[in-house]
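Quick question about two entries, pasted in order.
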Amino acid sequence: MAVTRNALKKWEKVRAFALGLPGAAEEFPWGESVAKVNKKVFVFLGVDDGSYPLGVTVKLKDEAAHAHALTFPGAEPAGYGLGRAGWVRVPLEEQGAPAAELLCDWVEESYRAIAPKRLTAQLDAR
């Protein structure tokens, strides 16, 4: 299955945004890209090689944001029990997938849920 250019562009924007957050680093556990802060994952970026549908998984503690994320086509609570902790997987290749800006808002919320206060303070100072 070929990755759509639109989905890939969104994914690249979200990845760049995530890695631009204070203290963020990219790692590749399980062969997929994740962005971590303080050694904890705040966004699962998956793979961009077309072997698996493009999507992002974020932690949304805010109930309204969480509920909103689940309204998008194909969105679902994340697997491996992560869904119970507020993690949502949002596919990017579905018709009607969220815009990059909204995805970045969710990545920031996920980051804030996990990052230490000194780093969120740096983000607020920007």
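Here is the second entry:
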Amino acid sequence: MALWTSTEAVKATGGTSAVGWSAEGVSIDTRALRPGDLFVALKDVRDGHDFVAQALEKGAAAALVSRIPDGVAPDAPLLVVPDVLQGLEALGRAARARTGARVIGVTGSVGKTSTKEMLRATLTGQGRVHAAEASYNNHWGVPLTLARMPADTDFAVIEIGMNHPGEIAPLARMADLDVAVITTVAPAHLFSFDSLDGIAVEKASILDGLRKGGTAVLPEGLPVSHILLAKAAANNVPAVTFAAQGADWHIASAQWGEEASAVQAATPKGPRLFRVQSPGRHFAVNALAVLAVAEALGLDPALSAQGLGRWVPPAGRGQRERIVTDLIDDTGFDLIDDAFNANPASMAASLDVLSILNPKDNIGRIQKGRRIAILGDMLELGETELALHAAIAEHPAMASLAIVHCVGPRMKALHDALPKARRGEWVETAAELLPRVASLVDAGDVVLVKGSKGIKVSLLVDALRKLGRARPQETEGAE
């Protein structure tokens, strides 16, 4: 069944189409376009209209445009609208309106994408699930995700982010949510907000997108939790809390392993056991929110816990893998790829994970295995950014690290704050460290690479992988 026909798309957008067509998908990038997609000619760094001819040549079913591009015939399959982004938004709203899916919106300073993916795993097997690809959570990512949603979807998971005040509420209203989740509120994007309270107010505005009878799943125990709860009360929205002791959902006991965490949660309906196939308390706390969502949707608790147990972190967000450098002895080092995003809260969580992983002694040129961190700048933190970087030196997990290498002008503040015994290299750009990557690690080490996407420490992840053969870390019970 077609995702969109020309008749449906014209009705949704109010546009015009000279010919009939049907599309099986929606794409904004000719590099990822598949035959049968509707190509959306958004204007970003480049004007998407410049690529319409190429998209049609590659097999696009049609193109959403605001004008007939050069080199494209007037009778080509074009959906012409006054504004392309507004046309995409109209498709998103129409896709939401035509489906009976229950839609979950996820926002938060940290953990949006991993929580979205946990929800995808948890809901799979209990209905047809549609979720955003990558981190499509902004003004075009949310309508694109909605426009891609098949009419027979049972559950949709929409990630909603922000950089500036006033962004979240319109996207949440567009998604018309049944459940809204706020993972946490932490210092991030402070360049656009006066305080943590301001960030909390913006995050809480996701509740403006809840349908009547919807549910809010909110973190308890934060300095700004009262702001979130007050917003729920003002909107007359029932709130389920998680995280801190005393919340509706909290960790009663847990076994924290190198490969996984086994948790017994206290819930309003009694104890609940679950397993997260990754180390780290922060992942277990996010899992509480996920199971609370499943409960709010009335889903089977056993199936939900089983689905959650199949989740593993995606690349760039805490994924752990073994880099085998000696094929004969099958020895190497462990790499934690967390190079997609960073702020003080996620940095602390990643360091906590590194601190519980055990290096291996007597298998490398350096007798004792080490915990090593390669940390890149945390961006968009505003006027206090240098103090926030320097404060990482005081995190308790730092005491378990052998050495810390720093990348970026802001990370110079951390480098200066580190004790000399733990102070590794400092470079302004990741590229400067590339020629020396091989000398930074040894067999038996556990290496964390963490930083904001813009500082490009992912280059170092790629270079570390090339030192050997990457192999996903084996996890007991994984499927």
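Reply: Residues 99-308 form a domain with the UDP-N-acetylmuramoyl-L-alanine:D-glutamate ligase fold (CATH 3.40.1190.10). Residues 474-479 have pLDDT under 50 and may be disordered. Hope that helps.
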